[in-house]
Amino acid sequence: MQGHQHQEEGEVKEEPSPESAFEKSPFQLTAEDVYDISYLVGREILKISSEPQGEVPTRVAQLQFKIVRILEMLEALVNESNLTVEELKMERDNLRKEVEGLRKEGPPGNAEQLSLGPDKMIIDLTDPNRPRFTLQELRDVLQERNQLKAQLLITQEELQCYKSGIISQREDQAGPMEKESTVCSPSGSSKSNEEKTIIKRLFSFKYGKRI
Amino acid sequence: MAKKTYDLLFKLLLIGDSGVGKTCVLFRFSDDAFNTTFISTIGIDFKIKTVELQGKKIKLQIWDTAGQERFHTITTSYYRGAMGIMLVYDITNGKSFENISKWLRNIDEHANEDVERMLLGNKCDMEDKRVVLKTKGEQIAREHGIRFFETSAKANINIEKAFLTLAEDILRKTPVKEPNSENVDISSGGGVTGWKNKCC
Fold first, then answer.
1. Domain that holds residue B93
2. Inter-chain contact A206–B78, Cβ cutoff 8 Å?
3. Is A148 within 8 Å of chain B by CB?
4. For the whole model, what pTM was predicted?
5. Within an 8 Å CB–CB cutoff, is residue A170 touching chain B?
6. How high is the pLDDT of residue A203?
7. B34 in a domain, yes or no?
C-alpha cells in the first residue's frame, strides 16, 4: 500500500486519473487499467482502517460500488471469453475434418495434382490402358490403315478382272496396264508416280489441299 | 480402249452423335448385314460400294466418322472432300436430335459450301422407345432445306433409298462430260471424280 501512495504522488499530474479505468469498456481494459483499479481499491481499504469510525459506512458504500463495477467487468469478460473459446473449438474441428478429408483423397506427395485446373487429366502411370499416343499419331495410323485398305480394294478389283478374264494376256503386257501393275505388285519396291497418283486420288479426300 | 470399272467417284461422309448407328447404316448398305454388338468407331473408316444410276457406274467412297468428341479434330479434317454428308440421329435418343444443330454448324465450318446434305433418323424399328417424333425430324430438315429419311439399319428400312437419293442429288449437280474426256476435277481440293481405273 505504501508503494501505491508513492505512485499517487508521482502520477497525480500525469495522464487521466486512475478512476477513468472504471469508465472504460471491459473489452478495452489494459493491464495498466487493472493496476489502477487495484490501487484505487487498496486506497479505499486503507482509508477505512485509518480514518475515524464515523466515516466507515460512507467508505464501505463507495467500495461496494467499485466492487460491483469490477464484478460486472469480470462477468462481461468471462462471457466474451467463453464465446471465443466455443468459436475457436468449432473452427479447429472443421479444419481437422478438412485435413482428414484431404489426406484420404490422395496419397501424400501429390500436392501438385491437387492444384490442377478443371481441364487437366491425371494419368495413372501404372494403368496398362492409360492413354499413350498423341492425336497426331492416331491420325497417321488411321491414314495409313485407310490407305492400305484402299490399296487392297484396288488390288482385289484388279484381281477380279484377271480372274474373269477381262484382261487378256496381250493387254497385260501392253503399255496401259503397267500403270496398274505397279499398284498390284506385292514387292512395292518402287513407288512410281502413277501409284502415288491412284492412291492419292482416292485419298485426295484427306490430302486434297496438299496435292 | 480399256474398259472402266466405274464412271464417277462420289465421296460421302457419315456424321452424328456416338451410338446413333452410323457404322450400322453403312454396313447395311455396303454389306447388307447387321451386327448388334456396339463397337465405337476409332477416328475414321471407309467403305466402298459401286452403284448404277442413270446408266452410270458410280463408285461411292463412304467415310464413316467416330461420333465421340475426342476424335473431333480428326473427323472434321475429312469434311472438306465430301460431296455428300449424311447427318444421323437416333429416334430413341433425344440428345442426339438436339445435337443436330451442332453437327450442321460443323458442316458449315468444315465442309465445302455446295456439299449435299441429308438427315437420317435411325433406329425407326424401335417404335416403343421412340422419343423423337417423325414430324420433328421432317420439320428441322425442312428448316434447313435438306432431305430427310427415317431409317433402320437393323430392319433394313430406307437405307439403300437414302444413299441412292443422296448419290442422285450429287449426280444431278455433276456436269455432264464428253465420253472420252478425262474426269474433271471440279475443285482441286475435293478431288471430285478422280481415281478412274483403266483396268479392263
1. 8-173
2. yes
3. no
4. 0.58
5. no
6. 60
7. yes
| Chain-chain contact of A180 with B199 (C-beta, under 8 angstroms) | yes
Smallest CA–CA separation between A200 and chain B, in Å? 9
Identify all chain A residues contacting B73, using CB atoms and an 8 Å cutoff: 135
Of all residues in chain A, the one with the smallest CA distance to B80 is A205
- Chain-chain contact of A208 with B197 (C-beta, under 8 angstroms): no
Overall average pLDDT of the A86-111 stretch: 83
CA A130/CA A180 separation, integer angstroms = 43
**Does some domain include residue B197?**
no
B134 lies in some domain: yes
| Cβ contacts from A onto B, under 8 A | 76
Give pLDDT tens digits for B154-193.
999 999 999 999 999 999 998 876 444 444 433 333 333 4
Task: Please answer yes or no on whether A202 and B43 come within 8 Å at the CB atom.
Answer: no
B159-166 own/partner pairs: CB under 8 Å, 24+ apart = B159/B25, B159/B28, B159/B29, B160/B29, B162/B25, B162/B86, B162/B118, B162/B120, B163/B12, B163/B29, B163/B49, B163/B51, B163/B60, B163/B62, B163/B86, B164/B51, B164/B53, B165/B118, B166/B12, B166/B84, B166/B86, B166/B116, B166/B118
Rounded CA gap, A76 and A27, in Å? 8
Taking a C-beta distance cutoff of 8 angstroms, is the pair B123, B89 a contact?
A: no
**SS3 call for B94:** helix
Q: How does residue A205 score in pLDDT terms, banded at 50, 70 and 90?
A: low
Number of domains in chain B: 1
- Residue B55 belongs to a domain with what CATH number? 3.40.50.300
CB atoms within 10 A of CB B86: 27
Q: Is residue B2 part of a domain?
A: no
Return the residue of A nearest to B41 by Cα.
A142
In terms of CA atoms, which chain A residue is nearest residue B61? A202
Chain B neighbors of A142, CB-CB under 8 A: 42-44, 74
Mean of the per-residue pLDDT values of chain B: 88
